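To whoever picks this up:

The nightly regression suite flagged RNA helicase Mov10l1 isoform X3 as changed. Nothing in the input moved, so I suspect the structure step. Input below, exactly as stored in the fixture:
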Amino acid sequence: MIDDLIYFSSEAVTSKVLLNVGQEVIAVVEENKVSNGLKAIRVEAVSDKWEDDSKNHSPGLSDSSPRVLIGCVTSLRNGAGYISQTTYFSRESVCEGFEPCKGDWVEAEYWIRPGTWSSEAVSVKPLRYKRVDRVCVSSLCGRNGVIDDCIFFTLDSLKLPEGYVPRRHDLVSAVVVESSQSCYVWRALCLTPVHRRDFSAPEEAAGEACGALLQNKGDIEVTRMTNFGTMKEGGCKSMVICIENKGDVPQYLVCCKLAGWDKAKQFRFQMLDKTQRCSMVSLVSLPEEEKNFSDETINSLDSCRKTDTCQTLESSLGNSRAVSPDDCVCKGGSGEKEKCASRKQVTEPEPGRLIPPGGQTLVVIICEAKNSGRCKELLLLCFSNFIIGRFLEVTVVSEEESLIAVREPFSWKNSKSSQALASTKTTVVVTTQKRNSRRQLPSFLPQYPIPDRLKRCVEQKIDILTFQPLLAELLNMSNYKEKFSALLWLEEIHAETELKEYNVTGVTLRRNGDLLVLEVPGLAEGRPSLYAGDKLILKTQEYNGHIIEYIGYVMEIHEEDVTLKFNPEFEQAYNFEPMDVEFTYNRTTSRRCHFALEQAIHLGVKVLFPEEIILQSPQVMWDWNHAQDTQTDGPPTSKGRKAMRDQAQVGVEERQAGTVEASGLVGKTPKAREKEFFNLMLNENQKLAVRRILSGDCRPLPYVLFGPPGTGKTVTIIEAVLQVFYALPDSRTLVCAPSNSAADLVCLRLHKSQALRPGAMVRMNATCRFEETITEAIKPYCRDGEDVWRASRFRVVITTCSSAGLFYQIGLRVGHFTHVFVDEAGQASEPECLIPLGLVSDVTGQIVLAGDPMQLGPVIKSRLAMAYGLSVSMLERLMSRPAYMRDEDAFGACGAYNPLLVTKLVKNYRSHSVLLALPSRLFYHRELEVCADPTVVTSLLGWEKLPRKGFPLVFHGVRVRSNEDSFEDDRYFLGFLSNSKRFNVAITRPKALLIVLGNPHVLVRVSCGQWAQGRGSRRGTAGCKARSSVCTGSLFRRPAGIQHHKWCLHGVQPATGAAVPAEVSPSVSLKGRLWSCSPGPPSALQGGAGSGLMGCGGHSLSR
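Regenerated output under the current build:
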């Protein structure tokens, strides 16, 4: 039914897609002239995903082809069952060696039967699996147990060697699969003992016997709910326990008795005969003061036969544990102490009786609360051939304790003064957007409001240390959270203050279809900085002291026009009235950072402040090439080599100690692929990095992939992700980057590798991101990322650092991911980097930070936050710690860094040798090697405008209208010239040609210009005449014989600003959108690849 009015059948649904209740559809409807009913003759699903299903499939994939499903086994019967309640699978479709159980997470290929809505799996295998060696059986309860405190097993589905029964403290090896079993995420498929320990403590035997004692036996079922709850001291309460024979054979109850654990004898009992069962019903409904038995009813009982079994249990069950109650019971009321005191304590064994098939026997338990505290007693029901036990429990509180007990649930109550004030403002919010409604995420992230005192310090320019003295301290584990929280608040205060400057009054909006458009001057230059999904507030003019606020969200941004979504009624009623516009700061990322700081305590010193290196057994065994190791990988000393060999040998021995085989699933030891690398073009340093990541020798210490410009850092990450996916079937990898563009690049590269099958990888986007900004090739992966719960189960998840916080909102915490990669980690602030890191295991997880600490760091706008360290990325901070620092003496043979923690890539595949020489000397210890394609980097050496042929670096000097002396004031910024990291980025972008445009007399005053002293050449400059202030030999000095050129690339004449014909061949295009420094109006220069352009002298030309 559609809207409870329109009938339709499966034949009317286009493309035979599966529809869900609540899904939006478009239908062609006809009316039945006889019944006047409505019937849909065509039903088409409205896709609120990134792309329609027909577009999302890979080329050539038809609707009848198998599709990939990741889901949980929700029901099971006779080996067959359903995945996610909808997809059927048979026993024949399950892979060899895998016996599914309810709760198991699986990956299945399924297809939809033509003409029906039913889906059926053609192959089912575990989503994640692994082998664990030499782990201990933690606990046993009946037929269920736990291994290593984290792996569930049940004897009903566990494969065991013949004759072996697991016992507590047995040392075992097992093959486990991912499964949701209560609080456990792994389930054991098969188990074999490595070493069985003897039980030395008598309580262990008692605990094992207790588990069997509490089970129903002989078709006798006994009430399990035997907890009296909380009672006041002096009170009295009764409870009825039902003993029912559900078998075909009579059972003789020999006797009932109490084990005698409760020395105060607060429990007593009576077995009801046939004449008393009727009165039992009225007993339950009597008032509290009349619900107690009389002395005549509760009599002393004769002793029963004490079998050897009873005597053994009575003496050995002193420390038994209770089971969870699952049945209903009849409870009597509580009476006064005086009325119960005269009754005789009945704790002796009750004479037995025969319980026929289908018959029942009732036992009344009376509890008299005497001593404050928790009390537990054991009731033994002794039958002819077995014993059934039940725990009796009560919590007794004294009169004083009851006076301070909670009397009603806590709730906030408004003060009288606030209720008396009349509201002067009405807020109208926008209806939920369609795309947001798919996720339905619980929004439990705390608000983390900015402290008012901190705001006052910033606004009144009071010393910030008066609010948080910890800012002046060195960062350590004790001040970690408080210091970064304060820095995040400082950045927020600056952002809010900056946005307030752009608030406008009395503006009118124009219509664009059903939406409204606001023109924001300066938006194209980032003033203010707005993004899709940001919130704006429109306010009406005040009328009689009343203002109406309309909350809207940014839907689209085009130059200076912002398309907004408001409440539909407002959009229709708006008649171009003047409105006040207030911009708001989106605090989502900041709140996620604050939350990640709270989770950072789980990462601990090993991850945040690593010092001691403890080698772990390798995750994957590699066949290391000895000669190659000696050259690029071997530790610097024989002592180090021996330590690594010893550690590797330990790992091998541990894995071989207990071999568990599950046919079709797990071999003996995870090994690298036969064809070692997916990308055969990797250089030796890249291969070394992949091996180190896959081995994980120092986990959980972060592994750093130091990637200078153009050295193939992202290519290395792609290879490492693929290797982890195939070599470690229990892995779940999270790949993050600070920006969408960087995350999209990783997803695109993995897609182009064609090494991941559909359903293995997902790209999860922020809720505010729109389809138009997504590359077509990765849209299918984005579609799966719309469901955050489902996306969390994929084995490779790609998202931004901020959007990784969505996983916190569905309850994921430490340990969900086995590997976390952060690409461009140097561009993320440390709190932002912590968001994905908080989801990895703090014990065995592998963290990989890839980036270049010598290039641009995080964008921080607050001068205060920058001064106290927020602009230092986690990557840069770790690289300054002793364990990660450069040490040529200790690690000279390994690239000067400890190869267990850092791999530095040095082969540059981007730039010409002339362009690479300066950054290599200034930032990378002259280690960068030129490996770029000669046909690309030499393509402009013959350009006719080069002052010196064969030298692809030109400085074009121009004079600007500025006071050169004013740049000594630190209030003036020269863009990349005042920031070494920005300077490094600017000069390492071009491949074949670099042109520097600016005033050399200003340039040599700043640090980067001074670094360049003596490095320059007289072969590639043009423009301004030399002055005495320009040092001889400077990079920017005009060589003799070179005249001032009256030209500028792509048509801007420096003297007049007039356009001139482009004199550069089509292959010579300039990258970036830059402005001319010459007198006259600024003009944009066309950008492209293959060359670079810089400018200086009062204007920042780099973007």
